[in-house]
Amino acid sequence: MKKHLENPKTRIIVICVSGLIILALIYRGLFGSVVKRRQFLKKQYDQLQKELDYAKQENTRLKESGNEQTDEEYLEKESRLSLGMKKEGETAVVLQQVTTSSTTLSNSENIPQSVNSILNFFRKLFH
Length: 127
Known about the structure:
Number of helices: 4
C-alpha cells in the first residue's frame, strides 16, 4: 500500500478525500443539532398552524350562529341569567349556599361545592 501513496496524484486524492470526510464529520457535529432543532420547530409550527386554522373556522362558525339570534332573544337570555327575571307563569328558583357548624356531618366541606354545581347546572340550562 505504501507504493500507491508514493505517487503524488494518489497522495493528493487521499488527502482531499480524508479532508472532505473530516469536514463532513465536523459539519455534522456542529450543525446536526441545529438541523434536528429546525425539524422539531417546523413540526411544532405546522401543528400550531393547524390549531390556528381550526380556531379561525370555529370563530367564523360561532359568529354565524351568533348572528342567528335576534336582539330580543339575546336580551331575554341576559335578563334571565343576570337579573333573575322570569316569564309569566314561570316559577323562579333561588338557591342559597347553606353553611352549618355541626360536626356530625362528615362532608360539610362539600356542601358549598355541591351548591355551586347546582348553580352551574341552572346557568347552563338557561344559557
